[in-house]
Amino acid sequence: MKIDFLNIQKINQFYEPELSNAVLSVLKSNHIVLGENVQKFEKDFAEYCGTKYCIGVGCGLDALMIIFAAYKELKIFNDGDEVIVAANTYFATILGITKNNLIPVFVEPDEFTFNINPDLIEQKITKKTKAILVVHLYGQVAKMDKIKKIAKDYNLKIIEDAAQAHGSEFIRQKAGNLGDVAAFSFYPTKNLGAIGEAGAITTNDDNLADVIISLRNYGKEKNGEILKNGINSRLDEIQAAVLNVKLKKLDIDNENRRKIAEKYFTGIKNPQIILPKFDDIKEHNWHLFVIQTEKRDELQKFLSVKGIQTIIHYPKPPVKMKIFSKFANDNYRITLFLTGKILSLPLNISLQQEEIDYIIETINNF
């Protein structure tokens, strides 16, 4: 049996024929960017997240870059200010900071949830700290109650990197509405995925939203004049049309992912495997199912021989990348420990029961 980690073609078949019809309708229209489909998605996704605004942009990295640029336009952040961030996140998270001449300050993750450890944040705060960039890694929301208290105590902004957390919740409140502003990616591999690059920003802040809307469109104001140093990062109509189709089924898709996760928890009985930890399985969207084992490389090869594709998220943390080395001033023991143990199993809505059973059986035979 051959099982891909993720097959985009198979997943998109779940949305047919509505998906193809939506794309064709755009091709037959006169709108390419920022048209009716974008307006509908921005309205519906804002309502879904529970925020006042959703602003569509070109991709998840653009979303982060624009957020930091907007805070600088508002004179809330300045060059050289510091942003607290998890040491084990995807490198694009850090680029959102450094591209704006801000300083990432790395904090170790919790060993079992993989998210930033809030108990280690305060010791990293200085007079230059202006924000906590909270990554909801693998789809589980970070400990926002503790993080919100720290942010309030030190007057810090909370920026969510919710690129993997579409529909995830913390105490019945959705990711994207747990801080001051949030960045989403809709890359095709995400729980809510487009068919190309796409992203969005959610917020309840009127002033911030106004600046973001300008910055994503060259810095253009309503009168057409360019007053800000913006970029071209506008969500296009085809991607918005696709997202409109898929958003209607997001909760169902996430529930199906949870059912697969539950099967893994029930079925995997290998003492060499550490299963992921969570606070509430229903609040986790199970974007990724990440196990740990001391024999990670051996297990990955074993599964590959058996036809099961797995992926390491991520093989090299940003604290070990040359481009960010000047910001890495600790040993990051937990981050590096996890990097050598983690392995992501296939988990998506196209998996069939026999495939799930085969994955479980093969792991148990390792």
Description:
This protein is 36% helix and 13% strand. The chain is built from twelve helices and eleven strands. A seven-stranded mixed beta sheet has the order 1-9-8-5-4-2-3, sandwiched between helices. The protein has a two-stranded antiparallel ribbon with strand order 6-7. The longest helix is centred in the C-terminal third of the chain and has 18 residues, at 250-267. The relative contact order is 0.17. The model has no long low-confidence stretch (mean pLDDT 96).
List keywords for this structure.
globular, 12 helices, seven-stranded mixed β-sheet, alpha/beta, 366 residues
Q: Tell me the total number of β-strands.
A: 11
Give the biggest beta sheet. 7 strands, mixed
In what range is the share of β-strand residues?
Answer: 5-15%
Please give the alpha-carbon distance between the first and last residues: 17 Å
Strand order of the largest sheet: 1-9-8-5-4-2-3
